[in-house]
């Protein structure tokens, strides 16, 4: 089965899943626990982020960690975990530190106006903090769903 490569501007714009392994084979319980166990016991994210939740989310992105060689898959997964580990403090934080006291709303942005009464601060493993980033992210997610 070939998969169209989204955003490809020059051919060939298809890729074949490797099929020689799975994300779950790479993100073993030992791998995941080795990251999350670096967070202190009192961290809110420690009981929030789980390997099973990650693997369930991966099912929504069938190309993640499955295109190209086995080595390329490992690099893609490693890059993802490097990023989210940095953003969450080894899965310790679910929200930006002191985020609730911040508000990144750009009141001058007419294309993506802020919702009255809402505060904009980083949340999750890949925090988008500006309303523009949030709207662009939602639009991209919608495109992926279409």
Automatic annotation (TrEMBL):
Signal peptide: none annotated. One of its GO terms (biological process) is chitin catabolic process. The keyword Hydrolase applies. Residues 43-65 form the Glycoside hydrolase family 19 catalytic domain. The keyword Transmembrane helix does not apply. It catalyses: Random endo-hydrolysis of N-acetyl-beta-D-glucosaminide (1->4)-beta-linkages in chitin and chitodextrins. Its EC number is 3.2.1.14. One of its GO terms (molecular function) is chitin binding. Keywords: Carbohydrate metabolism, Chitin degradation, Chitin-binding, Disulfide bond, Glycosidase, Hydrolase, Plant defense, Polysaccharide degradation, Signal. InterPro entries: Glyco_hydro_19_cat (IPR000726), Lysozyme-like_dom_sf (IPR023346). Pfam families: Glyco_hydro_19. Belongs to the glycosyl hydrolase 19 family. Chitinase class I subfamily. This is chitinase. It comes from Salix udensis. The lineage of its organism: Eukaryota, Viridiplantae, Streptophyta, Embryophyta, Tracheophyta.
